TrEMBL record:
InterPro entries named in the record: PPR_rpt, TPR-like_helical_dom_sf
Species for this entry: Capsicum annuum
GO annotation, cellular component aspect: mitochondrion
PPR repeats: 149-183, 184-218
Family statement: Belongs to the PPR family. P subfamily.
Name of the protein in question: Pentatricopeptide repeat-containing protein, mitochondrial
Keyword terms of this UniProt record: Repeat
Length: 400
């Protein structure tokens, strides 16, 4: 993927899972079915005959999952709303959005009394993916007033933010406030993610102020966006102040502790210092230091969450861009794997760093990393990393 899309794509993925929002429903006339019920079902596994297996056997997007449901019901079988939600979610994970949309439509149309706000919200998200934002807007505006809740509004806000439609997102955000809706952490995070993705970093702290004014508690994603916006503009003193605020929180636990340590290690070993400038120097091929720092803070976030799979995904994505990376980028991913105790990956990163033509291996960066780990009270991790650096033939590694 292009380097500029990584931040938005990966943050969308995690927040989609963490929020409990996701979502929705559209009018039955918007989904077009191209084939007949008899032609909808492809060859099925003879040993398994449940609804999910039948739907997943329909692999071509042009074929209809609705026809599978019609046949299932025609055989006198029951369809539960919980099964439909589960199947729709699994289809989305497989990026089979059209079929997920058809399941979502059936769910709402045949279970209107049991449909939740999240069912309608899921539909808005899927309509955006399948038919585009104009169709999603029409669907949202056509909802009854009782269905225009924080969750459905936030679903449309998410669609705008995903497409970087800043003006529309801001207008909708104002509508939500005018409607006296009770905004939640996810709503505010959507706006912050949008501002980060379009480079309006100065607006991120304003959203945090609004959250606090309305007594909405920031979560780890909120703080990471806030810290990232400050670090990207080299407001390092503000980063340190925010870390102190986090440490005073009532829900301060292992993830928060890892997060504080990783941020401290990053700004220390990365040699980030305060700057009075609002913008920073462009890097090679048009990627700014701000953008690279934003990517680094995604790595820090998932390191704090202990999500190794996501760390692997981000690092692979960044390396595939063939963009010039600095020693700081290597130190960031290395420190996250080290924090979680994945020493094989730490060794692989050291090898990649040493072989990289884009970022010369700098022993001083390694020494700063070890010192930052020791100062954070993580001396065992520092010792293990030092031994690995020496084994990899890295010169001038200092004693701890």
């Amino acid at each position: 993927m292009a380097a500029r899309s990584i931040f938005l794509t990966l943050t969308r993925n995690v927040r989609g899972r963490e929020r409990s929002l996701f979502r929705s429903f559209t009018t039955t006339t918007e989904v077009v079915y191209e084939d007949s019920p008899d032609s909808a079902v492809e060859e099925k596994d003879e040993t398994v005959d449940d609804l999910k297996s039948r739907i997943f056997s329909v692999r071509l997007p042009k074929r209809s999952a609705t026809n599978v449901l019609q046949r299932w019901v025609g055989e006198g079988r029951q369809v539960s709303i919980s099964d439909l939600r589960h199947i729709s979610k699994e289809l989305q994970k497989s990026r089979r959005f059209k079929h997920a949309l058809e399941i979502s439509e059936w769910l709402v149309y045949h279970n209107q009394d049991e449909a939740l706000d999240s069912d309608y919200a899921t539909r808005i998200d899927l309509i955006t993916k399948v038919f585009g934002i104009d169709s999603a807007e029409r669907y949202f505006e056509g909802l009854p007033s009782t269905a225009k809740t924080t969750e459905t509004y936030t679903a449309l806000l998410h669609s705008y933010a995903s497409l970087r439609l800043t003006e529309k997102a801001e207008d909708l955000y104002e509508r939500m406030k005018e409607a006296n809706l009770s905004l939640n952490t996810v709503t505010y995070n959507e706006m912050m993610t949008l501002y980060m993705s379009v480079g309006l970093l100065g607006k991120v702290p304003l959203i945090v102020e609004e959250m606090k004014l309305h007594k909405v508690s920031p979560d780890l994603f909120t703080y990471n966006l806030w810290v990232s916006s400050c670090a990207a503009t080299l407001k390092i003193d503000e980063v340190r102040r925010i870390l102190y605020e986090i440490s005073l929180g009532s829900d301060y636990g292992e993830q928060w502790k890892r997060y504080i340590n990783l941020v401290y290690i990053y700004i220390t070993s990365g040699n980030l210092v305060n700057s009075g400038l609002n913008s920073v120097v462009e890097c090679v091929k048009g990627i700014t230091q701000r953008e690279w720092i934003s990517y680094d803070f995604l790595i820090i976030l998932y390191g704090a969450l202990g999500n190794k799979d996501k760390l692997d995904q981000i690092w692979k994505s960044l390396r595939m861009t063939n963009q010039k990376m600095s020693s700081r980028n290597y130190v960031c991913i290395l420190s996250s794997y080290l924090m979680l105790g994945h020493m094989n990956e730490v060794g692989e990163i050291i090898d990649q760093w040493k072989l990289s033509a884009a970022a010369d291996f700098d022993s001083s960066s390694g020494n700063r990393l070890l010192k930052a780990y020791k100062e954070s009270g993580l001396e065992e991790r520092a010792v293990a990393c030092r031994l690995l650096l020496i084994q990899k033939g890295c010169d001038q590694i200092e004693e701890l």
